């Protein structure tokens, strides 16, 4: 004990520990509400292996194969669990209406970059798709500005797309 006291006098008090950066919870773990957040897929295996199984079962020209060609991109955005209904609904957002650029930061953002930004916001729980297909800006639970009960805070309805896919298959 005397050694510690002597060292403290010589070098000063112990520095306070630096806080660790928060690890972001995946959207699946945030348990978003709504019908578009009920259909989750968790492809098992590598992207190449999953694609090979789908092609063998349904054929290379099938709708299932076409869907599986784009899912690896979304695995990078959402993590291992993919909200298929919400992804499909967000893909219906029209590029020409300005909605994508309103939800994505930056000037002169390409349509693809804006779409990626929207999916990134959704993967973080910053926007959600309501049961009627409308898109809401939200504050996820467990953040400083979330609802007092620790739940989701719905901030603003951004827009309901003209088209709507079925929330569940």
From TrEMBL:
Residues 1-43 are annotated as: Disordered. This is Uncharacterized protein. It comes from Streptomyces griseus subsp. griseus (strain JCM 4626 / CBS 651.72 / NBRC 13350 / KCC S-0626 / ISP 5235).
